[in-house]
Amino acid sequence: MTAVARTLALVAIVALLAVAAATPAGARFQEAPTVDIHTAAGLATDGQAIGVTVLASCPERWTVVEATVRVSQPSGSGETTFPLTCIKSIRSFSIAVPATTGSFQLGEAQVSATVIAQRGKTARADDSEVVSVDPTVLVELASSGSRVDDGQAVILDVTVACPAGTNGLQSSLVVSQSPVIIGSSTYTPICDGSRHTFTVRVEKDTDSNPYQPGIAQALTFANVEWQGEVFYGIDDDGALELVG
């Protein structure tokens, strides 16, 4: 290579380095926030909220300006925020969006989400999905049960709530106790959006010893049907107190 050619090549390299140095870091690598809506949602038992799941992120050391979710149905709509922080990693958020007008129903809903973040410049991410709104079933066991008939059975309260429009199905309750004491029973939820308490008698199995005062374990599945599909809530108590 001649001296002139070497000089021209050196000048070109210096010029490229100068351009690269003058280019902002954000222009060389465009970081941006992200947001993605899960396509399934759950209706609160009273119809006053819909639970949605959102995946979101924003570049590290940026500041969140806005992180919101909006839900709309013909019967009602609502909006809320979620606690996004800029740590770069994608995080999952389970968000209950309350109805600010009307109420929500089973079926479908239009869900949109927005994330706006800032660090010198402002960047934005949006997502919008039509999601399926399925029933949520809440079930809660009482903290204690009563031994009856010298331990041949246990009486235990189970409180259940499920949305109007769903149908309660036969549901199970199992109460066990060491060593090898077990029994089961059933109940059927009433689905009208309100909480209902069922007093369930659990008979011990015929080959089981009688229940004893003290700590036992209880497990229940509350089942409902909607549009041919079964949905359930679950509660378990590993420290159920048996008295009497």
| Structural class by SSE content | mainly beta
Strand content: over 45%
CATH class of the largest domain: Mainly Beta
Total discrete domains:
2
Q: How many DSSP helices?
A: 2
Q: From the alpha-carbon coordinates, what is the Rg to the nearest angstrom?
A: 29 Å
- Percent of residues in helices comes to under 10%
CATH superfamily of the largest domain: Immunoglobulins
What gap, in angstroms, lies between the N and C termini?
A: 102 Å
Cα shape: elongated
Low-confidence stretches: 1-29
Mean pLDDT: 90
Biggest sheet architecture = 9 strands, mixed
Number of strands: 18
CATH topology of the largest domain: Immunoglobulin-like
Q: What is the CATH-assigned architecture of the largest domain?
A: Sandwich
- Topology as a string of helices (H) and strands (E): HHEEEEEEEEEEEEEEEEEE
